[in-house]
Amino acid sequence: MKKIESLISVIMPVRNAGSYLEDAVASILNQSYLNIELILVDDHSVDNAIEQLPGYLTKDIRLKRFISEGHGVVAAMATGYRQSQGMYIARMDADDIALAGRLEKQFNFLQQFPEIDIAGGQIKIIAETGIDQGFLLYEQWLNSLCSPHDIERELFIESPIPNPTAFFRRECYEALNGYHDSEWAEDYDIFLRAHAAGFKMGKPEGVLLQWREHDKRLTHCDSRYENKLFMKAKAYYLAHSDYFLENRKAIIWGTGPTGIYFHDILTSHNIEVISFIDVNPRRVGGIKRGLPVYHFTEIKEYTRDKDALIVGAVGARGARKKMRQALVEMGKAEGMDFLFAA
Q1: Which one of 148, 243, 244, 318 has the fewest beta carbons within 10 angstroms of its own beta carbon?
Q2: How far apart are CA 300 and CA 327, in angstroms?
């Protein structure tokens, strides 16, 4: 099948999207960039929302509907990809709303920056019940990460690309073999794999998507989105990256549950952890998992040349900022001498 150079193939997996589906579909078909195909993949829905889409949408020849050849969002994406004809692959969720200029801005962004392979987007979280402070801080964090450098710096904290904004060059998507049915969340996995493969990610300025928060969202219902599995994903890719831990030892900053769990999963990948760091006087000088606990000022000699990577694993709000400041003031370089995994 010949691929159409400027065509954007938008793949939308759908499973029981209910009343949200019409707005999601309309938001793509009403894009300012017209050369698109919207591939709607039915993941065996039972709510008839797809059949009830109004005629003004279903009569649009750019809308193409298929039934997933398997079950789950990964299988639905694979089905959609096999039907796609575009040189760009965009992800869209069936319960979100793309702003009218989303695809045009992402297309232009990749034209402007040929070194970038995946475009994400800034988002606005919406909810019928209001947004709590935690989500507002999460939105702020996501939207602060736009350059490839910033995204790489924070990649092991959480996924810096909101999945429904993902926009791939086709050759990148093919090289990654799309989304995988991994033990952990498929979206975080593809961005970790992209980084490991040397692909660059970035975002154009400006909000591109209204990201809907509700109780039935996949992140709340699928066990693969549990925090411990996110930690397992981080540990796996850190352990199998020669730039990070494949040929280095680790020092973990954090002796709480997050730090201890991260120690355990790193060692399960045969990574040698040589010590812990803490600032609590009751913990400094003690022992955790048979290893010494040092004050952070005692690890000045550990740099990339000294064969140990400092991994921040403290989950408390605000801790990361203080830890980063302390390490930078000691002359350490983020991404080389230290990184954060929480």
Answers
A1: 318
A2: 9
